């Protein structure tokens, strides 16, 4: 999994970008990595330190329990409040914890005050202010993971992976054994297809962070998305040998099996991740992922079963998802059963609501400056719905919008939408006779992953079209 602060995959159509009582005088206790935290209780400090280690391991449940224990031992422990806010899936609870930490600001160290101010700016929707503060924090405390993470993430959202990598290299210059930095750098190289550099940094992460499932999972995620499936399986099994209930490992088994075209195994892996989900990744997230291989299987019964499991997960009636999930379920059902016209109608009906939600988030400052509205899931389903009706020319622009998104991609899932859209565009262009353009798109995909099963039907179609053209010319 990616480093701290880099949250996992979003749900379909949840619009927006995620940025992610002791008495007496408090004492600043020194952590092993030279970062101080203000607490009046040594026991609270010990619980916090263990929780921080578990958070870095991506052991979400254990981290939350530890931070809660630290806060119970010292109800004024601001850093425990902020850390628990970062780990809780309840947005309202997270905001309340940040507000509570802010009340402790004047008694904290300078570094802690930066953490509080960044968290407050984020919950207030002041992304520019949060980034300004993060840059100051990183300049003053280059070994601070929160400062580096926020600065690097802002660069990544702009597509500037070189700056993101440089930020973590600055962190390593100050703290040469910082495992999180190697983890992040490995992912950034992996996103842009520099596999050898990605694996080199992740192997360093594994060496430093021993007896931890996450380094093996990070290696496997990068290997799975680069088409090195056997190596990925080996590392995922190593991760599970260390922590058998590590949900991300099952998620990435799902990616492996999708890449191999083994749809039933992919569905089962995502279902297992949902069963174990806690903290990083929710059951709904993983069950939504299972819809992809279910649809790719071409078996409507598998789609129906996957949707039934998804619908069992409780939905907050006040959330965006309460509005969009019924539409998602209906559209996926229509696509699976070949009812393209019905899917198209539902998609057009929900689009104004999605646009409105994005506009409101922009107005509230919850979307980073310069980020444009882009809904790859909506585009994908609209393309499929139109193709089912024989409206290939109308479908093409929706696939092209995904193949050339208005914002830089920022993780493997966002990159996947690009790959699969390129494949569809290539197939349509080949049908129109533009084989050179089609083959160029296929070649671009293979630089990232030479063997991704969801793209294979389009690749086969383009190859057969070229073969037919060569044979025709030779007669």
Kindly describe this structure:
With 475 residues, the chain is mainly alpha-helical. It has 24 helices and 2 strands. It is globular, with a radius of gyration of 23 Å. The N terminus is likely disordered.
Alpha-carbon distance between the termini? 54 Å
Q: What is the CATH fold-level name of the domain at 1-124?
A: Serine Threonine Protein Phosphatase 5, Tetratricopeptide repeat
Query: How much β-strand is present in the residues?
Result: under 5%
Strand order of the largest sheet: 1-2
Highest CATH level, the class of the domain at 1-124: Mainly Alpha
Helix share of residues?
over 70%
Principal-axis shape equals globular
Summarize the helices and strands and which ones pair or pack.
Elements: E1 27-30, E2 36-39, H1 42-56, H2 60-73, H3 78-87, H4 91-102, H5 110-123, H6 127-140, H7 145-157, H8 161-174, H9 179-191, H10 195-208, H11 213-225, H12 229-242, H13 247-260, H14 263-276, H15 283-289, H16 291-296, H17 300-311, H18 320-337, H19 340-363, H20 376-388, H21 392-403, H22 412-431, H23 435-448, H24 456-474
Antiparallel strand pairs: 1-2
Helix pairs in contact: 1-2, 2-3, 3-4, 4-5, 5-6, 6-7, 7-8, 8-9, 9-10, 9-11, 10-11, 11-12, 11-13, 12-13, 13-14, 14-15, 15-17, 17-18, 18-19, 18-20, 19-20, 20-21, 21-22, 22-23, 22-24, 23-24
């Amino acid at each position: 999994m990616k480093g701290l602060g880099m949250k996992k995959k979003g749900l379909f159509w949840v619009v927006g970008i995620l940025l992610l009582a002791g008495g007496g005088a408090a004492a600043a206790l020194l952590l092993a990595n030279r970062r101080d935290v203000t607490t009046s209780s040594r026991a609270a400090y010990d619980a916090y330190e263990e929780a921080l280690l578990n958070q870095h391991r991506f052991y979400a449940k254990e981290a939350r329990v530890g931070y809660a224990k630290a806060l119970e031992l010292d109800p004024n422990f601001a850093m425990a409040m902020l850390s628990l806010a970062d780990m809780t899936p309840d947005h309202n609870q997270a905001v309340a914890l940040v507000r509570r930490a802010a009340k402790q600001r004047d008694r904290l160290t300078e570094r802690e005050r930066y953490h509080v101010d960044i968290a407050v700016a984020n919950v207030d929707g002041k992304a520019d202010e949060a980034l300004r503060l993060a840059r100051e924090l990183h300049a003053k405390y280059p070994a601070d993971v929160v400062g580096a993470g926020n600065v690097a993430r802002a660069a990544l959202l702009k597509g500037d992976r070189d700056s993101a990598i440089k930020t973590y290299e600055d962190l390593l210059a100050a703290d040469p054994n910082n495992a999180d930095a190697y983890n992040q750098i490995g992912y950034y190289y992996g996103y842009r297809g520099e596999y050898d550099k990605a694996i080199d940094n992740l192997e360093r992460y594994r060496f430093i962070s021993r007896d931890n499932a996450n380094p093996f999972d990070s290696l496997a995620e990068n290997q799975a998305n680069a088409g090195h499936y056997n190596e990925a399986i080996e590392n995922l099994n190593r991760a599970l040998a260390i922590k058998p209930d590590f949900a991300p490992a099952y998620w990435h088994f799902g990616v492996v099996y999708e890449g191999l075209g083994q749809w039933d195994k992919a569905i089962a892996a995502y279902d297992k991740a949902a069963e174990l989900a806690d903290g990083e990744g929710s059951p709904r997230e993983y069950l939504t992922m299972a819809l992809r291989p279910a649809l790719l299987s071409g078996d409507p019964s598998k789609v129906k079963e996957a949707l039934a499991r998804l619908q069992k997960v409780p939905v907050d009636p006040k959330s965006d998802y309460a509005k969009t999930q019924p539409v998602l379920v209906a559209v996926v059902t229509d696509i699976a059963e070949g009812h393209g016209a019905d899917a198209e109608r539902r998609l057009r009906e929900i689009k104004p609501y999605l646009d409105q939600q994005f506009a409101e988030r922009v107005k509230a400052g919850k979307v980073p400056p310069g980020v444009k509205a882009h809904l790859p899931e909506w585009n994908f389903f609209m393309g499929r719905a139109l193709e089912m009706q024989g409206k290939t020319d109308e479908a093409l622009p929706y696939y092209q919008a995904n193949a050339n998104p208005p914002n830089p991609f920022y993780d493997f899932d966002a990159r996947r939408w690009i790959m699969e859209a390129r494949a569809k565009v290539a197939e349509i262009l080949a049908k129109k006779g533009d084989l050179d353009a089609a083959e160029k798109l296929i070649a671009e995909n293979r630089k990232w992953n030479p063997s991704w099963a969801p793209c294979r039907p389009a690749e086969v179609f383009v190859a057969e079209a070229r073969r037919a053209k060569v044979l025709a010319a030779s007669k």
